[in-house]
């Protein structure tokens, strides 16, 4: 953990920033807003704490008057209160698309896809990175770093390039080619580690003890995590300021799932939506299912696993927010489940063929888990549901190559076309 007490608190803490401190999620100890993420009393993770009165100055109108990106919610975020200092590629305000054909295929009444593949680097990570790098810049850092399963690396490299920050990103060496190329192009340092994500993460924590850099998912993680709340706010606003009855969210570290719940809770508490009940469902790959397996066994502790799945963006075997994700699913009456690699590929194809949305493997996990939850009667087909597509399928072509060739390969002649049975019947 990098402690830089001499640069202590955020310069924006005086201004409009509603964030006032970091607080321990376990024992409640508080710390100044600074680049640190672990409680020194009990080693539990820290989280941003807000001044409730400042949050209450946010209205639907003030949000609607904001930019068409995640910064419209700045009044509910811990950084970026001086617009010129934001690190932004205009992430957020992605489409919430009705999915009637997917709903019909699954026997559901009302289904929406929150399509976060529309972000600048084509995954939801642009939200968390924009907030984290903005906080990093406000805290005085000039180098930003991260451990990543791929999407985070690309987003950090892109945002750092746009802001003139130096970036150092660490990834497992067996990353999909598409993710490597599309990270390297931005010009920061891209370091491939001979190990899995959990090895990469361990090295990253060690580096964080050595260098005064902003490590997106280490010392500035509390700021990073708050960016995920915008995926909750946006869905509520796009539904006309109300909460959906059910949501299905993919889990890697579990942070996104817990922050969508936090966002829904805040909106209700602040009177921005009617605080109607909702159920949160989590989706994992069977080849990396530590949270789903704890849920199935009815236990509170999340036992680490060694990941082996095509869903590499979700391959975190030792998820930091796993226990909190379990809490959310249980408290709201949801569930956490998992699906095989074969079901993931089917999920990707089903979403593409019914709605014209090509999601990455994480999207396939979500669609396939939705189907499983319906089959098992855990998710109600008659209750309005939102599923999160968190990344673009072009990033993870490899697992589909064997299933995605041409319908026919023919010579350039009409007769060959007809002989292949491709005309009208
Ligand atoms: C990182 C990621 C997630 C989930 O992230 P959490 O670590 O659980 O917050 C989901 N989908 C994609 C595509 C991701 O890259
Ligand atoms: Zn503590």
UniProtKB/TrEMBL annotation:
<dbReference type="GO" id="GO:0003941">
    <property type="term" value="F:L-serine ammonia-lyase activity"/>
</dbReference>
<comment type="similarity">
    <text>Belongs to the threonine synthase family.</text>
</comment>
<dbReference type="GO" id="GO:0009088">
    <property type="term" value="P:threonine biosynthetic process"/>
</dbReference>
<dbReference type="GO" id="GO:0004795">
    <property type="term" value="F:threonine synthase activity"/>
</dbReference>
<dbReference type="InterPro" id="IPR050147">
    <property type="entry name" value="Ser/Thr_Dehydratase"/>
</dbReference>
<keyword id="KW-0663">Pyridoxal phosphate</keyword>
<dbReference type="Pfam" id="PF00291">
    <property type="entry name" value="PALP"/>
</dbReference>
<feature type="modified residue" description="N6-(pyridoxal phosphate)lysine">
    <location>
        <position position="125"/>
    </location>
</feature>
<dbReference type="InterPro" id="IPR004450">
    <property type="entry name" value="Thr_synthase-like"/>
</dbReference>
<dbReference type="InterPro" id="IPR036052">
    <property type="entry name" value="TrpB-like_PALP_sf"/>
</dbReference>
<dbReference type="InterPro" id="IPR001926">
    <property type="entry name" value="TrpB-like_PALP"/>
</dbReference>
<feature type="domain" description="Tryptophan synthase beta chain-like PALP">
    <location>
        <begin position="88"/>
        <end position="391"/>
    </location>
</feature>
<dbReference type="GO" id="GO:0009097">
    <property type="term" value="P:isoleucine biosynthetic process"/>
</dbReference>
<keyword id="KW-0456">Lyase</keyword>
<dbReference type="GO" id="GO:0006567">
    <property type="term" value="P:L-threonine catabolic process"/>
</dbReference>
<dbReference type="GO" id="GO:0004794">
    <property type="term" value="F:threonine deaminase activity"/>
</dbReference>
<protein>
    <recommendedName>
        <fullName>Threonine synthase</fullName>
        <ecNumber>4.2.3.1</ecNumber>
    </recommendedName>
</protein>
<dbReference type="GO" id="GO:0006565">
    <property type="term" value="P:L-serine catabolic process"/>
</dbReference>
